[in-house]
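$ run holo --ligand "cobalamin" --emit tokens
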Amino acid sequence: MTEKFRQVPEFAEVYARPDARGPRQLDSVADVRSDRPPAEWAELAKEFSLGNEADLAGIAALKPEWVFEGFDLEKEYPWIFVIGVAMDFDKFAAAPSSDTDTRSALEVSDKYNKGARAAAHLSNWIRGHGYNATPHAGPWAGSITLTPAAIEAGLGELGDHGNLINDKYGSCFRLSAVVTDMPLVADSPVDFGADEYCMRCEACNNACPAGAIETEKRWVRGVKKYYVDFDKCLPYFNETHGCGICLAICPWSRPGVAEKLVLRLAKKRRASG
Ligand code: B12
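-- output --
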């Protein structure tokens, strides 16, 4: 049986701090809609978001298969603006946390808050221009599975550890999002070689204390992708205030490494025609 998630009091405090997650109430949607071409809105929204706590920003058309059962967001909101917030590597890489060392878990909570603020800032900016916008931020699952949306929005490739690898931050970042009816333009998925790299690297497979990360891809709901066995992952995750070892050990996550790997893989691709 899965053990209950062991929360230390500090976490509840981090999430409850006044304004830690941005304004408690969103602005109302302006009565007058400003009119601009979608490409211009997309550029302006990214510029705003990157200047207001987001480290990464990308856009995708919201697909119904990303919305959890019981919600039908995509009828109201055709677009999802995905935000990435970098974590401090040294703090995050102190994973796994314990009752006496909560550095990694606190960094995670802190960056969940930053992601929530970034999504709230952008939602209000969009609302100020007369369009509807709703923020989505962890640590709760909310109504959307963010990983496939972030892949479509070009924030990174899916790594063997089941999460995104970005070409600057590796896997050392968290996601939040804004769904909106502001007319935007979708970005495209990226391919800088992380998927191929993962096929030869076994760092996360070997480091996972629960043996939850499989080396081979599997067919999951019609897509062949890297697979993590969460029945194995969850008990250890709960025991360690959120684990995180797999993303911390990922070679791409160490500061400065992702950029070098991207160059090396591009060179290799050019050489092999
Ligand atoms: C539930 C959840 C968990 C659960 C179970 C994971 C799961 N897959 O269900 C537990 C508690 C174990 C967990 C653990 C962790 N999580 Co988590 N988790 C989530 C959450 C809330 C929902 C994921 C989900 O939708 N699951 C249900 C289904 C869809 O799962 P699945 O079929 O196995 O799909 C997974 C992947 O295959 C992929 N996926 C789903 N559909 C598709 C479709 C295509 C085409 C592709 C390519 C991929 C893909 O997304 C899922 C992500 O794990 C998301 C936030 C969010 N709202 O999306 C964060 C999230 C995925 N987790 C995150 C992180 C960082 C972690 C941890 C490292 C914990 C930590 N210390 O931070 C570990 C890593 C464990 C691991 N190896 O994945 C980040 C990932 C950031 C990144 N760089 O990509 C997210 C996005 C949270 C956030 N807001 O930043 N997590």
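-- notes --
The pocket of cobalamin is lined by residues 108, 138, 141-142, 144-148, 151, 158, 161-164, 171, 173-175, 220, 223, 225, 228, 230, 233-234, 237, 242-244, 246-247 (CB under 6 Å).
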